[in-house]
Amino acid sequence: MIRLEAPFTEDKIRALKVGDMVEISGIVYTGRDAVHKWLHEGNTPPVSLQDAIIYHCGPVVMKKKGKWVVTAAGPTTSTREEPYQAGIIEKHGLRAVIGKGGMGEKTRQACQKFGCVYLHAVGGAAQVLAESIKEVENVYMLEKFGSPEAIWQLRVESFPVVVTIDAHGNSLHKEVEASSAEKLSGLMAAIKK
Amino acid sequence: MNTALQKKLLDSFVEIIRKTSVDLPGDVVDAIQVGRKQEVEDSRGKYAMCIIEKNIDLARLKSQPLCQDTGSILFFVHYPRKLDGELLGKLFRKAVVAATKEGYLRQNSVDSLTGKNNGTNLGPGTPTLHLEPWGKDFFDIRLILKGGGCENVGAQYSLPDSRIGAGRDLAGVKKCLLDAVQQAQGKGCGPGVLGVTIGGDRATGYLHTKEQFLRKMGDKNKIPELAKLEEEVLQEANQLGIGPMGFGGKTTLMGVKVGVLNRLPASFFVSVSYMCWAYRRQGAKVSAKGEIQKWLY
Known about the structure:
A: five-stranded mixed beta barrel; B: alpha+beta; four-stranded mixed beta sheet
């Protein structure tokens, strides 16, 4: 288990390798479809994303005694942001993207070039992930985008993920896809009528 | 139905929704445990399976949805024939609205044209209710909640299929199933379960795949050829090495359930639905007085 703690410097990120099991402590910002499209259109984010972590997540957030509390916070499918992610990594200096399902070639190349990683959270594990969110520090764009699409500034502790795209050009998704395709052709060839 | 009975039924329906959303059935929990045990120590697959098990316990304890995507709402109901089916349909919809308000269901029904979400989970096509009258004096109510991530990786094949070299026979069906698992990779939040229909038309084929998910994990198909197919596909798909969440590992699938329907001479469909590890399925025997008498899973 590797502990990744703020500040998220390029050195720390470049030290991670595909397959590493990581626990993150520090600030992460949620951002999904609306935020990515909006940043892609050239808008300036309300908070600097330099050396930041963005989390593909539409959390369920409730106000309890005047304070925001996250009650469910699993990852959403990342490929929807594939058209925008590489440009945002380059322009804003993101150091990590958390999501599920993996991302494509453009993102893999941007991670390598600009020193970023893709971190895979366990899909569906809404309760475990909500437990590691210790505080909602702020929220931006709530009016404009609505709760699930807003930028939530979350302080997390020991947030569990696996590195599936690293800053050295490796992608676990690519590897597993290739090895399973090879295995599949062997199995298909062995099927008899 | 008098008001008291309606109230009682409504409460029972909401409780069935709550339990389905927060508590996985025992047979699924057992299968997940088997998966966790067979993953190698200190591997990514083991790590994912441990998080999954922790999540299952936590959701039950906190009585909160175990996955925030509370999914498509699929009711399969038999009700005493003397009762008013139309009114029951209304009660089920009311229960869905109430369970959404309580937070057991996410506001999950979006107008496909405008993108608007009215926050009730009611709309054209949602929820899905299959209501059938029967001659018994109690209800059999079963519910499946199926998330969008796994629904997206379902597939329908029309045989013969030259891309994968699948003909109109069980060997061809097997090729479809292995191909579907490889295509899905980890995107359907595996380890998953396949619900499969051989035959039918495009609509009935997919519907019947969902009905396969009502079967228990450990049951055996009554049709010997299909029982053999289920076992073989499970065993071979687990050689693909996709593993939990697509991280690599031994547990790619936890089960395969195959049903069969008649087809037109011109058609031969193989329909495949993928169920994620968050396999939310519950059912209850409910008395004619509206009380839950027994959980079915």
